[in-house]
Amino acid sequence: MGASNQRSAPPLFEGAVAAIMGMRWRPEIVIEEIPAPQKIAPFAVAVSADVVVANEELASGRLVLLHDPGGNVSWDGDFRCVTYARADVDAEMVADPLLTDVGWSWLLDALERNHADYVAPSGTVTAVSSKAFGAISTEPPRAEIELRASWTPLLTSADQLTGHLTAWSELLCMTAGLPPLPEGVVPILPRRPGVRPR
């Protein structure tokens, strides 16, 4: 799993991959391993996610964990989390000029709430609406929010990645309009492993 360029993966990266594969995800989140980028870092692993409630997909996204044992100046560290999340929203929400600021705060607040130490966050939040005309004018108006972000998790042990994974899952759920789980509530394990191999 992950891009290795035929090099042996460092134990910390192997532990991080195990943390992703063994993560207890919320029952609304369906995770699937996907091919990781091959040229950005010596080691990488990636998963996609759909937030599904009552058989309806409310949001989707992906998470890539990059690792360069030699460090990367632009990351300010040797790991980097890269994410994408999108969801359809009400047209009225897109008209709110604060929506993009709120969308960015979802990520930072989730990291803080889960005690996930990080540096160098960056990203964009885009809110767009569209209306169909002409031959497709019967299609309903659409509005969506899209977040692209990355941050450097400060990891000295693989179990520290759990806070980042929980924060990412909360970001997906907030994008979908679902509130974070109350403190102390543990998600129920699915009957099958949370990550489906592709």
Give a structural overview.
There is one protein chain. This protein is α+β, with helices and mostly antiparallel strands. It has one domain. It has helices spanning 11-21, 91-94, 99-113, 161-175; strands at residues 29-34, 43-53, 56-72, 77-88, 118-130, 142-153, 195-196. The chain has a 7-stranded mixed beta sheet. The radius of gyration is 18 Å and the shape is elongated. The model is unreliable at 185-198 (pLDDT under 50).
Q: Quick check: average pLDDT? A: 87
- Gross geometry: elongated
Query: Helical stretch count?
Result: 4
Low-pLDDT stretches are 185-198
The number of distinct β-strands equals: 7
Structural class: alpha+beta
Structure at a glance:
Helices cover 23% and strands 37% of the residues. With 198 residues, the protein is an alpha+beta fold. The N and C termini lie close together (11 Å).
